[in-house]
Amino acid sequence: MECSLLRVFSGLSTVLDLAHPELIHHHKVVAYISLNVAREMNLEPSAQEELFLAALIHDLGILSLRESRDIYQIEAIDPHRHAFIAYTLLNEVPFIKKRVPNIANIILYHHAPWQAMENPAIRTALLKAITRYTKVDISITSYILSLADKVSLLIQPDKFILHQVDCIRDRIEQISGTLLPKEAVEAFLEISRKESFWLALTPSYIEDFVAKEIAKTSLISVGEDDFLELSRFICDIVDLHSPFTAIHSHGVSAVAEKIGELLGFSGEELRSLRIAGYLHDLGKIAVPEDVLEKNDKLTSEEFAVVKAHPFHTYMAIMEMGGCGEVLNWASFHHENLDGSGYPFHLREEELDLGARIMRVADVFSSLREYRPYRSVMARPDILSILRKMADDRAIDGNIVSVIEKHYEEIDAVFLQEQFTNHQRYQRLWREIAFVTMS
């Protein structure tokens, strides 16, 4: 399997945007504006590409809708925490640090006012703390990203875009030399004279224009081992969105890989199972946290929202390039053998062994984890539920038999994965808290 970093980030951006439906295609709009401003300023091609990549995922550190309501305004009060979270997560990925080391830095300061960075005395307390801790110099690309972000937030989706042009241009010009450097604003004002620039930003066209830019950009290739790293990074973003399901995807990944090993899967297939486990709940980024964290039974309307998440996963991985068998294995984890699952209602003959393993691994991990509405379930109860689901033709009985026979091995792998990543998340949150609460 070969894909490109831009395609991976483009697929991720689609799901990030689904989490904030009030801002249509926000990440792609910001990416397109950023790239065009950078070109107008004649930045080096490598700087343009890193900016494009950063813009596609710039708000990955927003972990709740409540937080986004505060941040998504043109002059948000101290909005740097989510940028630091993104910076911290990106720096956990060796592939990104090696191949595109500047994207974390670009995102880190994409809400930093130009005047505050020029004059340290007027920085906010949080910005001072981040600057001291990271010791990262701000580049013009961070200001371009900031400009593009502000333009996107000024666009009103319920009004024809060409009717808004003068107002948006005036607003950006008003903050030239204060929130934004003059050279970036001048470049924006030049390219935004064209009606075609604005029309490309509309929901009807933005995805096509971004795809066109990806197709003509010098792509950073992502190999199989690299994609394993990136999928683990995406897994972190998914799991950190809800403390009630934190580390879930890591557990599913480990259990699926172990079951595959016991069933004689090849090394390449085991890696695909691991990746599919990391990515299977990618679409849950689009599910509001009040639904994910609800203690009571979901209403039919709430459950309908949840039932969409495997489809979001499917479409995001498709945008990443399909990624071979990972696409189906990650996306079919709620399909039942009798066709009663969701969202595709596939039947037994349409679900290969990898997809069936993912289904069972997801159920096992969910039962084995703590939930606010119940304690951790004991082995007899877990096996009883799995066996009943197999008898009802929801899951594969042969895979359940593997769990029954090798319960201690599978459980040990699950617990080790949970412990390792719990420790890692604790370290990340201590680091984030140390800086953002300074």
Secondary structure class reads: mainly alpha
Please compute the radius of gyration using only Cα atoms: 23 Å
Tell me the β content: under 5%
Unreliable parts: 68-72
Count all strands and give the number.
2
Number of domains: 2
Describe the global form: elongated
How do the strands line up in the largest sheet?
Answer: 1-2
Helical content stands at 55-70%
CATH topology of the largest domain: Hypothetical protein af1432
CATH superfamily of the largest domain, called what? Answer: Hypothetical protein af1432
| SSE series | EHHHHHHHHHHHHHHEHHHHHHHHHHH
Helix run count: 25
Provide tags for this entry.
Hypothetical protein af1432; elongated; 64% helix; two-stranded antiparallel sheet; single chain; 438 residues; mainly alpha
Structure explained in plain terms:
The protein is an all-alpha fold and 438 residues long. Helix content is 64%, strand content 1%. The protein folds into 2 domains: 219 residues, Orthogonal Bundle (Hypothetical protein af1432); 209 residues, Hypothetical protein af1432 (Orthogonal Bundle), CATH 1.10.3210. A two-stranded antiparallel ribbon has the order 1-2. It is elongated, with a radius of gyration of 23 Å. The two termini are 44 Å apart. 44% of the residues are buried.
